[in-house]
Write a structure and sequence with these properties.
The protein is α/β, with parallel strands linked by helices. The protein is built from ten helices and seven strands. The chain has one domain: 3-Layer(aba) Sandwich (Rossmann fold). A seven-stranded mixed β-sheet has the order 3-2-1-4-5-7-6, sandwiched between helices. It is globular and about 65 Å long.
């Protein structure tokens, strides 16, 4: 069966985006800041850290400055992004694929990943490898795009292509649901998994600016099932018109929805809290809620 994503094309598009990435990295910067705020809420030191899918090194710059950081490795699928990260913060940086991590078991206390995992073909396998690379009680902290991302764009592209070309092709990648991602963490063997989502709405002066930003971020579609025909000019113009008609605000701007799913999980360790043994409760639910105890039936 064909894999969902063309990873070779993704590498090419990230390499291309690296040439002017600083002009389009505002969303990654915001999501990275929010992800690292969550890291600050975990009150324990992390000595050896992997920044998985480092892009230009935004997260690495902050992590390297933490007092408890001993060793930071930055990794990216794109060799040119990895070069940017290396130059940005002078930390150990390699080119590697999230689907084939080249690290020994129990190498890290923390793995951080911002906007890198949503284009992975074997996400369960990638999570299992991340778990393997963590030491006992190590932390996995990631942010990736979720299912509500770019809903407006998906809608207008389908309508525009139907109007102008008489058919519809896949133009925007599908993204995983927050519930499914939480289940994947459990399947990968993580302890204490938590998946939650938040919506970030970016308001653009025009749909064309959104199209340019997606290209500049290296986030245009890399689906294997995508149409190989370039988007026709009349289709693109019609999509922009529909975007303004259906979603334009009074200020003349259009919204672009990005759902960000945040994943937090731990490598299992004997020191972690565990659920109480079934039947070991000493207080009934009725007593706790101060309600009468009603028998079944």
């Amino acid at each position: 069966m064909q894999a969902p994503f063309d990873r070779s094309l993704l590498r090419q598009r990230r390499n291309r985006a690296s040439t002017n990435f600083a002009s389009h990295d505002f969303l990654l910067s915001e999501i990275t800041d929010r992800l690292l705020d969550r890291l600050d809420d975990i009150k324990r030191p992390f000595a050896d850290i992997l920044n998985l899918g480092c892009h230009s090194g935004l997260a690495g710059e902050v992590i390297a400055a933490r007092a408890d950081t001993r060793f930071l490795v930055q990794s990216d699928l794109s060799d040119k992004m990895a070069f940017l990260a290396r130059n940005r913060n002078n930390q150990a940086t390699i080119t590697s694929d999230e689907e084939a991590l080249p690290f020994a078991d129990e190498s890290f206390d923390l793995i951080v990943s911002a906007l890198s995992l949503h284009n992975v073909n074997d996400l369960p396998g990638a999570l299992i490898q991340a778990n393997r690379c963590l030491r006992p009680d190590g932390v996995f902290l990631a942010a990736m795009f979720g299912g509500q991302t770019l809903t407006e764009l998906k809608e207008v592209l389908m309508l525009a292509e139907s109007d102008t070309a008489g058919g519809v092709a896949l133009r925007v990648s599908p993204f995983a649901d927050v519930k499914d991602l939480g289940n994947l963490l459990q399947r990968a063997g993580f302890a204490l998994p938590v998946a939650d989502s938040e919506i970030i709405t970016v308001r653009y002066e025009s749909p064309m600016k959104l199209f340019a930003d997606l290209r500049g971020m290296g986030e245009s579609s890399v689906l294997n099932a995508r149409s190989r025909k370039p988007l026709r000019r009349d289709t693109l113009i019609r999509a922009a018109e529909l975007y303004m008609e259906r979603h334009g605000g009074e200020d003349g701007r259009v919204p672009a929805t990005f759902e960000v799913v945040n994943l937090t999980a731990w490598r299992p360790d004997a020191s972690q809290p565990k659920p109480a043994r079934r039947g070991s409760a000493t207080v009934s639910l009725a007593d706790a809620l101060k309600t009468p105890d009603t028998p079944e039936g």
